[in-house]
């Protein structure tokens, strides 16, 4: 008989006989291995893990969605095993990914709280053995293609966590993260440390990731390879290519799902085309939930970030018929993201190292149909079956008789997006722990709508929760922590020590115009008493964009040097053209003088600093003291708006120059000028004269020090302005930051040089 036919027949028989005892199973397995040629035995399987971002439980055709068509993923489920009770490691991005890649509850490895933003100093500790490192150490080519979100300092990056190749976004694209990249042109798409595209376009990512994944597969056709493909979609902001726009009955979200389905199909087509589909396992799962059901039959409730089922129970499908994974099966066994670590290692013939304590269980017997449940470790039914026994097991007398060790290992412990233990599930039972104990029977009530009274089960699950808390208290490991000093070659960061040294008062209203209010944020060093000089930090944005948060780091860094530093909002040109912005700057100065006692300010020593459009306003503030047309009605008219020192950065000081005349007349380039000043220089010469700092400069004006980037336009050197100041014997100067562009505040080395320069100048003029 043909060996391959014999092997297939014998495996089919074993799948159908789930009651065969372990001895017979082991004997048959050994016999099969004797019949298989050694060359085939040594062939390691390829692994493709597709992780989708923020896909809800019901959001695929095979999970009940009627608003979208997902034929390729549905076919994957028909040819594989679909899980009905699968849990992500957490209801939010970073902890979920940490759990998947380490096989540990995120809490065990110190990564359970919220997400890693671009200013995060933590990540997966280098002592942890990620799934990628495990596979790489055992001869696999490894790649991460997609969204990382697991730390951004060098030691946390994908290629230092076991991946040979990386392509994708290290960050999210939502507004709270994009803000970190505004000065750099947006979030970059990276390939192995090099920027490929900036800013990344959400509409292109699903296809680009898939293109890169297929290329990696083609380059490693001889295998084995481990491909981790964590998509940016379906996270907001959504992006859909033109081909799929309007293709679903569910708006942009449905369109993005259908594009995802198409590209999952491209992966399968490539595996088949390359004739390696029979030696590849493909996993499809979501990193956390999205929202509740939409029909009476879709009972689950809850959104992302919550520990209701809708926040953390997600779609999951495993496919690999050529490697013995069962086909066309649904499993209601409670499994979770941590289980993939020892399971995939078993399929690869890799034993998890003995010194690794993880939380995942080897579910390979379940995937192969050898058991309908995850076998107890004592049965030794798979290569990594004994891994759970490495976890601490020392229950106190109060709980010892309530549950067995294997029951404890099979429980799932829900943690909220802030990292706290929230609930525990065992079999069909789910117990919420806070603010009071609430028990639900998920088999009959997946919507968690009816409380169940069962004292025995409540006590059992509460005991599991207490034992788990004790285990984590004793055995949790720290997250990786980057060195506290700023990365001089990277994005600007302020140390926790600096931030902790400051008092702050935010959203202080300093001016009113009818119903319109303007706010400032005020920072002051905690350790210094008495009156301090004040510095008004005026953000840029071409007079039309930006907000006071853009100069928040500048204000905090200066405050730490011994000033009261404030950032201000002002009316942008889209709301009110010139001279509204300078009216607001003057109102801010008057407010500080009016409230000098309250904020510990020396009213005789107030300076200003700003970049770009903020630099122009700083220079104008310095030179227009007493110009009635520029004072405005922002309040506190009895106080002076003059300042005693100014640091204009990247500033335009000569608005009546030939350069300004030419730029203001150019259709695209001069649009901001025309919006701010309501026309070109030729159309509004008097307005440009009034807005030009050089026009107002006289001998009574304060010292000014200019800072600009070396690659910025030469007009920012303010040569005529500084020459006039020299004629008036007013102290002035220029610092050019080497290699820096116009927006230099975002890079640490340039930022530090700017702060040092400004501080030296203000020390000499205000203190």
From TrEMBL:
GO terms for molecular function: arylsulfatase activity; metal ion binding. Residues 45-350 form the Sulfatase N-terminal domain. InterPro entries: AB_hydrolase_fold, Alkaline_phosphatase_core_sf, BD-FAE-like_dom, Sulfatase, Sulfatase_CS, Sulfatase_N. PROSITE patterns: SULFATASE_1, SULFATASE_2. Keywords: Calcium, Hydrolase, Membrane, Metal-binding, Transmembrane, Transmembrane helix. It holds the Pfam family Sulfatase. The chain crosses the membrane at residues 20-40. Its EC number is 3.1.6.1. SUPFAM superfamilies: Alkaline phosphatase-like (SSF53649), alpha/beta-Hydrolases (SSF53474). Residues 520-713 form the BD-FAE-like domain. The keyword Repeat does not apply. Belongs to the sulfatase family. This is Arylsulfatase.
